[in-house]
Amino acid sequence: MSILTICRRWFHPVRGKIVLPKSSTTFLSSSGQVLPVSSIELSNGSATNVESVPDWAGADREALVFDTFDNFVPVDVAHLPGIIFNAVIRPDIVHRVVVWQAACRRRGIHNTKTRAEVSGGGRKPRPQKGTGRSRQGSIRSPLWVHGGVAHGPKPKDYSYQEARKLVENGLRSLLTSRLIDGRLWIVRDCALPSSDPDILHTHLKKHCWKSFALVDARNDDFDGVSDNLADAAFFVPEAKVLTLEKMNVHDIIQQDHLVISRQALEQMLDRFKHINCYY
Q1: What is the pLDDT of residue 36?
Q2: Residue 2 C-beta-side C-alpha neighbours within 13 Å
Q3: Is residue 242 within a helix (H) or strand (E), and if so which, with residue range?
Q4: pLDDT tens digit string along 173-213?
């Protein structure tokens, strides 16, 4: 191997962009860039130390907490852990999770009849010889009109198993992407004063939203979502109400914005507490 070939492989411009350091001296900024931890500044102007950021987490973030849908004004600031909202954005993982969920949701009830299942065709339509025409044994052959289907689709189960960590990383990547794009909102209480769908329609028109997914986790309700909110969202196709247990990538990625209640945000930490890395 020549010296020129070695230099070309060692100083290849793409190699430096693919290999990223995995040490504790880096974190993922809000713009998606990997920056050193020393560049993080606190509110008092002092810089953080390397030991203050764990090896397995990105930098924690903060977001405004709004009151309700009727009174959509900021009232507090929520602490967003970096293990959930500062993960590495992986579109390939999100795509795999969406394909997996779409495959599991397929009913697979398609069914076609073979020549043995189609009615009729008991006798031979014409003699074997003497007519000058082709040899046929049944009018329900796939060659005939209204005959059976050869190798047609039958009821099938399209679901398959996917790695649990991959599904969790896809959800963390989507939550991080929604936060960076400014399409994630934290609401103190998602309960509505009434089940009138006009409340949600007014909210969509006021903030120029095309659609939104709402994640709620109420401890005082059996379904985890207030009855007024569930009844109002039933008549609004642009609103998708989910509980914390049913929060998934497929339903969130179809909506333009994501709204999370304060209770769901607090309970979300228990769902991802076993994760020890942010990439």
Answers
A1: 40
A2: 3
A3: strand 239-243
A4: 999 999 999 999 999 988 888 888 988 898 889 888 999 99
Residues composing the chain:
279
pLDDT tens profile 105-145 = 999 999 999 999 999 888 899 999 999 999 999 999 999 99
Six-digit token string for 88: 């590495």
What is the Rg, in whole angstroms, of the alpha carbon atoms belonging to the chain?
Answer: 29
263 neighbors 216 (Cβ within 8 angstroms): yes
Residue boundaries of the structural domains of the chain = 56-105+161-271, 112-152
Work out the number of other CB atoms within 10 angstroms of the CB of residue 114: 15
What rounded mean pLDDT belongs to the chain? 79
**Full-model pTM:** 0.70
Fold of 56-105+161-271: Ribosomal Protein L4; Chain: A; (3.40.1370)
Q: Alpha-carbon distance 256 to 269, whole Å? A: 24
pLDDT, one tens digit per residue, over 142-184 is 999 999 999 999 999 999 999 999 999 999 999 999 999 999 9
What is the edge-to-edge ordering of all strands in the sheet holding 239-243? 74-80, 61-66, 184-187, 257-261, 212-216, 239-243
Please give the distance of CA 204 from its chain centroid, rounded to a whole number: 22
- What is the DSSP secondary-structure string of 119-165? S---S-SS-SSSSSS---S-TTSTTSTT-PPTT------------HH
Residue 87 amino acid letter: A
Q: Are strands 212-216 and 257-261 parallel, antiparallel or unpaired?
A: parallel
Helices marked H in the chain — which ranges?
Answer: 3-10, 15-18, 82-85, 91-105, 164-180, 198-207, 227-234, 249-253, 262-271
